[in-house]
Amino acid sequence: MDTLEKLRNKKEGAKDLKSVVSAMKAMAGSNIRQFETAVSSLEDYYHTIALGIIGYFKAEKIEEIKDFKKSKIESEENICAIVFGSDQGLVAQFNDKMANFVIASLQEISGKKEFWVIGERVQLLLSDVGFTTSKLYAVPSDLKSVTPFVSQILNESRESQEQKNISTFYIFHNRPKAISGFTPVMQRFLPLDETWKNTLEELHWPTKLVPQIAGDTKHTLHALINGYLFTSLFKACVESLASENASRLDAMQRAEKNIANLLDEFDKKYHRLRQSSIDEELFDVISGFKALKKEK
Q1: Per-residue CA distances from 122 to 83, 110, 131, 228, 237 (Å)
Q2: What is the CATH number of domain 4-22+251-295?
Q3: Can you give the pLDDT at residue 98?
């Protein structure tokens, strides 16, 4: 049974928890702004890079990309899944939705699968269903750490294609929705083959004029491809970070509301119990007074 002292301790504990939740809510709100701004900026840059590659295809009259390294037996194809999750908790269903999406998506893809996972939380969820992680990375803490992280992934993906003969890379990450929330998405990152070209050309060249390339065509293509790969991975990372902070902000808002309701309930219970104890003391005083009065 709750006593006044127990209820007082519970109220103090709930107040301490509320202060922690408020601090995390403020931090998530501060972080989400910079990531949302970066996502908005990257949309235009990514679109420009993609149009540049499409313009190159049109200028050079490239109708088809032939892949001479394609595996003869599809079941022997080596596939790498780059999965973005979180290192920290209090993000609601952020990691659970991503893990379920990865599991469902890879069931439809045949071949030997390798996992590069960003974030311990989602890595634990994937290991629970039997997926072994080849590489585990820490989640970048801010925008400054995203660039070296993306460069590292790009270098290792090139090395893995050459040494381990990994033919296909997929990126899995959460993408923020327009109003609120997020949704898990999958992107075929590598190779840059006919499938990639067809997907890219869904954007369409904006005018009827035939594009022209100024300068060396080889260097131009090299710069566009490097920009496309870097931007694709950078965009996925920043979108994941924006989704993570949005999810944490929503979770903290719900937690703050629940704690406020709990404090209100504690206050009511505390006042009822205190009033009851006062009533009991008054009843004892009155009863004693009546007993003394009868004796007199």
Answers
A1: 8, 22, 11, 27, 15
A2: 1.10.287
A3: 95
